[in-house]
């Protein structure tokens, strides 16, 4: 099993990375998986260049292949201006929009205040739904106060939420056949030309 | 003379400000510059000049056969082509007529490269729907193919008015239609289309990593054989390339960098060095261009046509003409010699009107 952990935190160290690591640990405690952590900060210029040139350079391509070839993905973004960060969105924009189809994904976010926690549900979850990924029901939001807080009468503490989300992702991974290694990808598929023509018939003679 | 590999240039026809002077040529200057570049291509011994087709600023070549007809009248040997002719938004009947007329005027020195175009609004401007891009390319070419091969055509399709008893005039020169290349940057469907008809396939091979084009050409070669036109090695492949040369490679880099940094398409992005590493762009000495171009054969197999992009990003005409001197005098003669070495006999040369006529007249063998 391969688990790709994508984090868009910008500071070093960042709380997004901290959350991503906690989520990855909680997942690998339940299923055996090789973890690859990807800090998008290191790829910010490569991602921007991919928009300008229309293709990812060698370094970015290798990372994209690691993410699209993973059996599961943990994706964590800081919440900026009420939504995912631009870098986080940009990274998923340069990935082919079918490459994550059916991939189990655990989403997480960090922010200064718990008031932005629903950004996970109204921004991050729809992004992965569009990509036809399978997003686990529990999304984990960590506000600054969560790092020093505990559960209250109405909400689980951060640790419990991480454990629940990780359990949901682990459950999906356990029932999954590991993806083929990179390089074993299928040959270029093509619709035979007769079929392309036939789709236009009976009008063409 | 049989040309095994044709060498030439293709022009996008962009009107771009020269970043080193801030000067923007007028449309008139750019059109005349394209013609001067085409004439120079013949003068320095190149085989092909191809023009793009665009219907929006900052591009000038909206009417390729008009320009190519003018160039035809002022040249003797140069093959006139396109890169690309929009098979999606042009009426295939008009393509059939325009290029047959050009073929007669140029005594057969004409072929064309079909493409879908990459400018979204062109589709609605010409009454088409971009979501139908591939079906338009398939149906329109099916009609074009028929118009050049059957004297009287009855036709009904999805995308244009039906035809009853229609004859496209003039008929192709000597009854031999212009050779067709299909150009595509990303669609396996187009590689499949080229293979089905036994036409040529052109990978623009600029601005993108070569691996991407290798996949498409490999697919085209396999499918060419599948449809019984020959072996995969006999499929007719064309490649683009982009170069800038000075005798001293540091001079080339220094002079080209501002044009690169501000270029449409890739400017204001990666560094020149990174882009050279990631794509087939070569900026350096003629020898570096030779070495890099020879690698194309290793990546793509023996091929039939090599076109270079030489005149974009606001390079002044004088510079482009100097580039063509270097290309014609120092690069292409070496490439011709090197490409001929070890080229299997069964790999066909580049198609010309003469070769297609000879093939048509050859006795059919069992």
Automatic annotation (TrEMBL), chain A:
The keyword Flavoprotein applies. Gene3D superfamilies: 3.40.50.360. Keywords: Flavoprotein, FMN, Oxidoreductase. InterPro entries: CE1759_FMN_reduct (IPR023932), Flavoprotein-like_sf (IPR029039), FMN_Rdtase-like_dom (IPR005025), NAD(P)H-dep_FMN_reductase (IPR051814). SUPFAM superfamilies: Flavoproteins (SSF52218). Residues 1-147 form the NADPH-dependent FMN reductase-like domain. GO terms for molecular function: oxidoreductase activity. This is Oxidoreductase.
């Amino acid at each position: 099993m391969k688990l790709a952990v994508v984090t868009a935190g910008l500071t070093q160290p960042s709380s997004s990375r901290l959350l991503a690591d906690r989520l990855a640990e909680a997942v690998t405690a339940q299923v055996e998986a090789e973890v690859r952590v990807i800090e998008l900060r290191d790829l910010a210029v490569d991602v921007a260049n991919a928009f300008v040139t229309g293709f990812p350079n060698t370094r970015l391509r290798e990372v994209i292949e690691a993410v699209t070839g993973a059996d599961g993905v943990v994706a964590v973004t800081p919440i900026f201006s009420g939504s995912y960060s631009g870098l986080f969105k940009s990274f998923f924009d340069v990935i082919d929009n079918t490459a994550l189809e059916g991939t189990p994904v655990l989403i997480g976010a960090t922010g200064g205040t718990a008031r932005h926690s629903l950004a996970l549900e109204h921004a991050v979850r729809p992004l992965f739904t569009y990509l036809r990924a399978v997003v686990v029901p529990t999304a984990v939001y960590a506000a600054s106060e969560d790092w020093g807080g505990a559960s209250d009468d109405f909400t689980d503490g951060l640790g419990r939420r991480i454990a629940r989300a990780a359990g949901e992702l682990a459950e999906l991974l356990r029932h999954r056949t590991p993806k083929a290694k990179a390089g074993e990808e299928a040959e270029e598929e093509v619709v035979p030309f007769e079929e392309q023509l036939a789709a236009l018939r009976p009008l063409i003679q | 003379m049989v040309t095994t590999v044709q060498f030439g240039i293709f022009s996008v026809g962009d009107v771009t400000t020269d970043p080193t002077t801030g000067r923007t040529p007028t449309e008139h200057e750019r059109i005349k510059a394209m013609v001067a570049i085409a004439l120079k291509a013949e003068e320095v011994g190149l085989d092909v000049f191809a023009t793009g087709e665009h219907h929006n600023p900052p591009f000038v070549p909206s009417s390729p056969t008009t320009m190519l007809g003018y160039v035809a009248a002022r040249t003797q040997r140069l093959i006139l082509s396109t890169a690309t002719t929009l098979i999606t938004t042009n009426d295939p009947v008009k393509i059939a007529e325009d290029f047959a007329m050009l073929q007669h005027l140029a005594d057969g020195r004409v072929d064309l490269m079909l493409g879908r175009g990459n400018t979204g609004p062109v589709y609605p401007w010409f009454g088409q729907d971009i979501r139908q891009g591939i079906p338009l390319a398939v149906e329109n070419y099916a009609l074009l193919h028929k118009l050049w091969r059957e004297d009287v055509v009855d036709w009904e399709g999805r995308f244009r008015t039906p035809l009853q008893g229609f004859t496209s005039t003039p008929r192709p020169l000597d009854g031999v239609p212009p050779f067709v290349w299909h150009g595509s940057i990303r669609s396996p469907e187009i590689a499949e289309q080229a293979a089905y008809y036994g036409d040529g396939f052109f990978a623009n091979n600029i601005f993108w990593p070569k691996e991407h084009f290798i996949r498409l050409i490999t697919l085209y070669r396999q499918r060419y054989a599948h449809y019984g036109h020959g072996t995969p090695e006999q499929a007719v492949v064309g490649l683009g390339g982009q170069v800038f040369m000075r005798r001293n490679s540091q001079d080339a880099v220094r002079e080209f960098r501002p044009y690169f940094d501000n270029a449409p398409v890739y400017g204001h992005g990666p560094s020149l060095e990174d882009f050279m590493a990631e794509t087939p762009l070569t900026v350096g000495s003629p020898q570096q261009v030779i070495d890099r171009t020879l690698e194309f054969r290793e990546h793509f197999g023996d091929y039939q046509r090599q076109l270079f992009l030489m005149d974009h990003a606001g390079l002044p005409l004088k510079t482009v003409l100097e580039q063509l001197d270097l290309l014609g005098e120092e690069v292409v003669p070496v490439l011709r010699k090197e490409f001929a070495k070890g080229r299997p006999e069964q790999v066909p040369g580049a198609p010309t009107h003469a070769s297609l006529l000879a093939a048509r007249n050859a006795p059919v063998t069992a």
